[in-house]
């Protein structure tokens, strides 16, 4: 009963209760919440208490920035539930191997990150935090309100009590394991008849293809992309197939960071997190987010640097929200390509979006693509086109990439073309990927 009250409270607060006159008032409200949160975290987390030694809460912006390796290296002292990293990993791996994601540790939900950055991380969510997360997610993503019937189909590599918690009252929830064969998933979809689909873009593409081939005869009320970068190519195909916008939820180990509004614009969830912008390129508005989540206490996230590349929107969203509008989540910093300059050999930054735009500009017949940089002078390009156009496409892609590299004054790498192949499952789809380390 307490849990349901918390869910409804946070739903109402998110939907109608929190309103700010302007951006300055919002930032003042954030500041007060963060200072209170910092005082609470300092008392309960030995790691942060030692990290911030002698620094008052009012100077939280001067606290050291932490990253994944530091968080995982100090996991036992950082979390406030008394759970060791060894216990958490054992619980999470057991859930993944058994595919039973319901058990908790001391009432705390334990989950694993996907490990796209090279190592897997742990996230902990307490019972009250889970209820607050549920109310917030439902308020931001659920069409029609909390009391309207809905069937939610959630596709992901691993389930969690956190995700299961969205099943409330008239809301039904079913987890669809990406490791299951596609025909089995489609059969379950037809039987369940879900009207809200939540899945990685690569899975949504497969559902769109199944719809176009006649092997899936469903139309969703809302489509929400999660877990992977929503590439323009995938967005266009999915929206054309189902005749509606693809919404997004920007959710990761470090928190529920963003959600799309009614206009389809992604906004940062600045009612529960504060995002500092580490600018990568001022002209193009690209930045890396440094996250302070003032809604979580079991595994506190304070000035945590993510590895994502975000592009801020050039203009305010027509929806009128005060929350920062994001034009695109571009990928990870690890997937920025580097090519030697033609004059001095110094490495030149090539953002993933540059590569995406060049490949898509080559031909409207491209249906899928991946670009992997194996070394500073070697680029592998795999793609799939509509039948009958593949032979003409290779030189077109090569020409567009050469134009890009010339504009950036880079030495053109050797291009290797291969057949496209990717199956959603254990790995996330990365359309542009750097396969070597600096």
Automatic annotation (TrEMBL):
InterPro entries: ANL_N_sf (IPR042099), CapK_Type1_Caps_Biosynth (IPR053158), CHP02304_F390_synth-rel (IPR012685). PANTHER family: CAPSULAR POLYSACCHARIDE BIOSYNTHESIS PROTEIN. NCBIfam families: aden_form_hyp. This is Adenylate cyclase.
């Amino acid at each position: 009963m307490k849990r349901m009250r918390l869910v409804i409270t946070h739903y109402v607060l998110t939907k109608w209760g929190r309103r700010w006159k302007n951006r300055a008032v919002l930032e003042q409200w954030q500041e007060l919440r963060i200072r209170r949160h910092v005082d609470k975290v300092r008392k309960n987390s030995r790691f942060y208490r030692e990290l911030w030694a002698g620094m008052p809460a009012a100077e939280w912006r001067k606290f050291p920035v932490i990253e994944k390796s530091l968080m995982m290296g100090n996991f036992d002292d950082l979390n406030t539930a008394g759970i060791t990293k060894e216990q958490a990993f054992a619980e999470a791996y057991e859930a993944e191997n058994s595919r039973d994601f319901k058990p908790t540790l001391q009432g705390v939900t334990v989950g694993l990150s996907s490990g796209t950055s090279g190592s897997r991380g742990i996230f902990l969510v307490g019972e009250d935090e889970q209820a607050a997360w549920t109310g917030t997610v439902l308020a931001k993503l659920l069409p029609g309100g909390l009391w309207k019937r809905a069937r939610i189909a959630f596709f992901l590599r691993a389930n969690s009590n956190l995700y299961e918690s969205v099943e409330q009252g008239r809301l039904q929830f079913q987890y669809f394991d990406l490791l299951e064969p596609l025909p089995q998933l489609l059969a379950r979809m037809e039987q369940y008849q879900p009207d809200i689909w939540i899945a990685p873009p690569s899975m949504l593409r497969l559902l769109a293809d199944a719809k176009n081939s006649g092997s899936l005869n469903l139309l969703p009320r809302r489509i929400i992309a999660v877990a992977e970068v929503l590439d323009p190519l995938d967005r266009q195909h999915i929206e054309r197939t189902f005749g509606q916008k693809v919404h997004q939820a920007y959710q990761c180990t470090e928190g529920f960071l963003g959600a799309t509004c009614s206009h389809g614009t992604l906004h940062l969830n600045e009612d529960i997190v504060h995002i500092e912008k580490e600018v990568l390129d001022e002209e193009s508005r690209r930045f890396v987010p440094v996250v302070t989540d003032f809604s979580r206490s079991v595994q506190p996230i304070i000035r945590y640097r993510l590895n994502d590349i975000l592009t801020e929107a050039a203009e305010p969203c027509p929806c009128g929200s005060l929350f920062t509008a994001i034009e695109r989540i571009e990928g990870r910093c690890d997937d920025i390509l580097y090519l030697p300059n033609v004059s001095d050999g110094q490495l030149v930054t090539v953002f993933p979006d540059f590569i995406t735009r060049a490949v898509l500009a080559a031909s409207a017949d491209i249906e899928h693509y991946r670009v992997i940089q194996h070394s500073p002078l070697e680029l592998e390009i795999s793609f799939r086109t509509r039948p009958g156009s593949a032979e003409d496409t290779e030189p077109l892609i090569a020409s567009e990439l050469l134009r890009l590299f010339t504009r950036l004054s880079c030495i053109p790498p050797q291009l290797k073309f291969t057949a496209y192949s990717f199956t959603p499952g254990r790995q996330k789809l990365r359309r542009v990927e750097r396969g070597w380390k600096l």
